[in-house]
Amino acid sequence: MAEQTKKWRIVAVRRLSEAQLEALSEVAEVDYFEDVDESNHADFMTALSKAHGLIGGKLELNEAMLAEAPALQVVSTISVGYDHLPLGALNRRGILLCNTPDVLTETTADTAFALIMATQRRLVELANMVREGGWRAHIGAEHFGVDVHSKTLGIVGAGRIGAAIARRGALGFGMPILYTASSSKPALEQHLGAQRRELNDLLDEADIVCISVPYNDDTHHLIDAHALARMKPTAALINIARGKVVDEPALIEALRSGGIRAAGLDVFVEEPLPSNSPLTAMDNVVTTPHIGSATHETREAMAQLAVDNLLGALIGCEPINAVNVNVWRRSASDDKET
Ligand code: NAP
Fold first, then answer.
1. Is 160 in the pocket of ligand 1 (CB under 6 A)?
2. Does the active-site annotation cover 271?
């Protein structure tokens, strides 16, 4: 592409393939950072100060940094969650925020189900026992797990991922499905026989409680000590959403005291999970390092969608996935008027 068409500058951080970087470079000057840490933060800020677009996974951005980026028009995050980004400040500045829903839904639901299987059947604990030479006789009841099939699955947040988890449970494992969401889900009710419940009722009834809500002010500590106390002592909690949706110390206490039986956790208040967290040493807890969407195929698809979102937005198309699409619509109508 001719040099004069490169009217944009893009800062790209992590997770992009060579082909994707090339696609960006065809239309923009690209400053690529494999990672941003203390050692290159100043270089990152210099690049950001000239950028029209920012794309990447785990983007670190705050209001003060935005103030140093006067040309910024689009932030394209390689994630569906955007709780790590300052949406209010982006809105005030009229900066479009794009994310990558849908392409990661099935993979993240697979991860949730892996955690369900692992916690119910104690897979990690028992695999470790075999690895450590502890399998010396036929195993007895002290090593038995509990069934997955036919258990009641409670989905807290039956959106895209929650619904995909519910489908696996209902159609694959014959599980009755309960759910919460901000609005009712007639399709889930019709096709899976799912039933909507108030959160407290779901916690009372479910054998497995699966968290798939976005993190925001309303969902901060949605699962606190009170919520955990409502769960059956035989129940398991699965969290693939965000760590701060759950009051982690309260969860640790519930797991220690037998308030609930087990937990399968992909997300934590602090990530990476500190090695001295009690969660790493509990047999009834399965921890994974935030791998919800982490397959080759899905990460590639997410990065591609983020590239398409960014380029589309820069050239003025209505973006495929915009969190604050009103910002785009407003600026598009301003452009028409001027
Ligand atoms: P989504 O389609 O927006 O689903 C979120 C669901 O939560 C919706 O059904 C929504 O209700 C419901 N909800 C929102 N606030 C609620 C509240 N206070 N109480 C009960 N339900 C509430 O989002 P998604 O694509 O499924 O993703 C969900 C979250 O998963 C993301 O935000 C992200 O944080 C997390 N995630 C994690 C990983 C990982 O690697 N572990 C990967 C992908 C996503 P309505 O449908 O009525 O609006």
1. yes
2. yes
Instruction: Give domain 8-102+296-337's CATH number out of 3.30.470.20, 2.60.40.1260, 3.40.50.720, 3.40.228.10.
Output: 3.40.50.720
Distance 157 CA to ligand 1 centre (A): 5
Q: What are residue 165's phi and psi, to 5 degrees?
A: -70, -45
Distance, in Å, from the CA atom of 82 to the CA atom of 251, rounded to the nearest integer, reads 24
Note the pLDDT tens digit of each residue in 216-272: 999 999 999 999 999 999 999 999 999 999 999 999 999 999 999 999 999 999 999
C-alpha–C-alpha distance, residues 40 and 5, integer Å? 29
Residue 159 tokens read as 């959106």
Hey, which bits of 102-176 come out as E strands?
153-156
Model's pTM, two decimal places?
0.95
What is the CA angle 312-69-66, rounded to 5? 95
Contact at 8 Å (CB) between 164 and 113?
no
Beta-bridge mates of residue 287:
265
Q: Is 290 a catalytic residue?
A: yes
Are 164 and 105 a contacting pair, CB within 8 Å?
A: yes
- CB contact at 8 A, 25 and 68: no
DSSP string, 67-103: HT-TT--EEEESSS--TTS-HHHHHHHT-EEE---ST
Assess whether pLDDT exceeds 50 at residue 2: no
Q: Looking at ligand 1, which residue's alpha carbon is closest to its atom 8?
A: 159
Question: Has 220 been annotated as catalytic?
Answer: no
DSSP label at residue 262: E
The correct answer on CATH 3.40.50.720 for the domain covering 105-287 is yes
Distance 323 CA to ligand 1 centre (A): 13
